[in-house]
Amino acid sequence: MKSVLVIGMGTIGIYLARKMQDLGNEVMIADKDEELIQELSPEFNDAFCGDCSADGILKSIGVNTFDYCFVTIGEDFYASLEITSILKELGAKYVIAKAKRARQVEFLKKIGADEVVYPDKEIAENLAVRYNADNIFDYIELTSEYSIFEIPVVSSWVGKKVMDVDVRRKHKINIIAVKNDNELNLNLGGDYVFDENDHLVVLGKSSDVFSVASDVKRPSR
């Protein structure tokens, strides 16, 4: 269990705080909008209303006691910069700040943010990859070269064993799981026989995965 402070109750801040709490973490939310904090306070044991960029406010919260401090302020980038800087000055262990533009990423890192997330860019890139090629259901980038993809099983593989298809050698991708009817099989042996309703969770280079996915002859969605 982690202790988490989320500053800025915009859409992302609210979803983040709720999910962190659902995962069993201790979450404190903060925003200067009193009406919004009153609305959210029944959901959270700790809800603070105040301008976190003002002198002394963050110090009174004790930000150095949290495992993670998220700065998810939406429109006021100057306030985001100030709060991120103050958090680091007060000894916050790990600060994650949200950016809306590439230039903001640079500034937030320069003033001490341990990590900067750029959700609009990440969503756009994810959508671009998913719809750049047919039959890509989902995608998670691991590095600039390798990613995890969810694709339907290739039609010609149906009824064949994993060992007979020899995916790794022939197609340069690794099958790490098979999803069928919302059940995930992570212990895939060589004797596993592909079913026509299988979705494959694979690891590989985008070009190699796109090549395999293009061989699927049935509708993807």
Automatic annotation (TrEMBL):
Coiled coil: none
Record-annotated RCK C-terminal domain positions: 134-218
Gene3D superfamilies linked to this entry: NAD(P)-binding Rossmann-like Domain, Regulator of K+ conductance, C-terminal domain
Residue span(s) of domain RCK N-terminal: 1-118
Protein name: TrkA family potassium uptake protein
Species this chain originates from: Ruminococcus intestinalis
